[in-house]
Amino acid sequence: MRTVRFPAGSREYDVIIGNGAVSVLSGEIKKLCPGAVKALIVSETNVAPLYLEKVRDELTKAGLETADYVFEAGERSKGIEAVAAMWNKMAEAGFTRTDIVIGLGGGVTTDMAGFAAATFLRGINVIQVPTSLLAMVDASIGGKTGIDIPMGKNQVGAFWQPSLVVEDTSFLKTLPDEVFTEGMGEVTKHAFIMDPVLLEKLEKANGNIRDDEDLLEEIVAMNVADKASVVKEDENDNGRRQILNFGHTVGHVIERDSGFTKPHGICVAKGMGLIMDACVRAGTLSPDDAKRMKDLLMLYGLPVSDDITPEAIVKGAMNDKKKRGGLISVILVNEIGKAEIKKMTPEEFMGFLSK
Ligand SMILES: NC(=O)c1ccc[n+]([C@@H]2O[C@H](COP(=O)([O-])OP(=O)(O)OC[C@H]3O[C@@H](n4cnc5c(N)ncnc54)[C@H](O)[C@@H]3O)[C@@H](O)[C@H]2O)c1
Ligand SMILES: [Zn+2]
Fold first, then answer.
1. Facing residues of 156 across strands?
2. Residues forming a β-bridge with 8
3. Which end of the chain is more exposed for a tag (fewer CB within 10 A), N or C?
């Protein structure tokens, strides 16, 4: 078991990572939320049958009354209706400001549980128990919460840090292979933008990290520490936190153009590959480093390219919320382990992407 202290300006909290980590929940809750009487467990139809009882037992052990809200698994549920149902559930059960929401699931669940907690009674405690690789290394940590609206993904939300994150890596055993691979998109991203040691570990593991419990725990913890170090400097996403968007400016466009049928992590991998190609053409990234990064993506079953045109990328990026004042923030990796944020006009971005 490992603990990473997550230092986000307004609130510091522990991220406890390990095989069987869920068993720390009752003790931690007694320590962290001594005034809590009730807890709402938010989960979904794939995860609840596997892990909800385990979590409920822990809460009961901590002396809490529990309620649960289980929604239909999948991104399509990530809307205001589900969150409103959580508010109503808590109101009906008489939740007060010292009570707790528990998010048990992938990123869809942790984003919504966090948003329900951020907004109910102007903010109550949320404890995240992520169950997908992507949620463990990315979505459940850092305090971004939210929902989708018809105009776009994650368009409504709040910054709301959890009180605790418990990452039981044994939960990853039931994750479908393709969902695990998708999470590797964010893991490799962390390696490329800031963590050459992680990169080497992933290379050495030769594509097999799922079955080695210790290694998996270590790799998840390294990713949490990486994200922590970035969020520490820029909780509200106005500066350095943007490096976490490596591959995302392009990836989001590919994702949206597919009508969200292509998984996020796959689109991010494609986006990273396309940006690497452009950096090599610009002469700022060595072909050897680009090859090393792309080989790693492929080793973990991820794609490194896409046939989307530069025109489509620039058009899509201009519609993305991440553009600022007509400029597009493009994240570049010109040296393994070092990311930079470059603001480009649409014309510059087009030139950069064009062969
Ligand atoms: N808040 C943030 O900073 C942040 C960062 C990245 C992504 N996100 C959000 O996260 C979401 C994507 O997360 P995700 O990929 O975890 O999606 P998800 O929650 O839909 O989970 C992916 C799939 O895995 C299943 N699953 C999860 N854990 C399982 C387990 N242990 N065993 C079996 N099946 C399991 C789910 O039921 C689902 O089918 C998106 O909505 C994205 O916007 C948020
Ligand atoms: Zn992402």
1. 147
2. 11
3. C
Write the CB contacts of 41 (distance below 8 Å, at least 6 apart in sequence).
52, 55, 56, 59, 66, 67, 68, 69, 102, 104
> What pTM does this model have?
0.96
Q: Could you identify the atom of ligand 1 that is nearest to the CA of residue 50? A: 32
> Distance between CA 182 and CA 176 in Å, rounded?
10
Identify the DSSP state of 355: -
Query: Pick from 75, 267, 301: which is nearest to 181 by CA?
Result: 301
* C-beta of 185 in contact with ligand 1 (< 6 A): no
Domains of the chain: 2-174 (3.40.50.1970), 177-353 (1.20.1090.10)
Counting ligand 1 atoms within 8 A of each CB, the residue from 72, 134, 234, 243 with the most, and so the one to mutate, is 134
Neighbours of 98 (CB within 10 A): 14
Query: Residue 179: CB within 6 Å of ligand 1?
Result: yes
CA 11-12-18 angle, 5° bins: 135
Whether residue 109 has its Cβ less than 6 Å from ligand 1: yes
Query: How many A from CA of 347 to the centre of ligand 1?
Result: 35
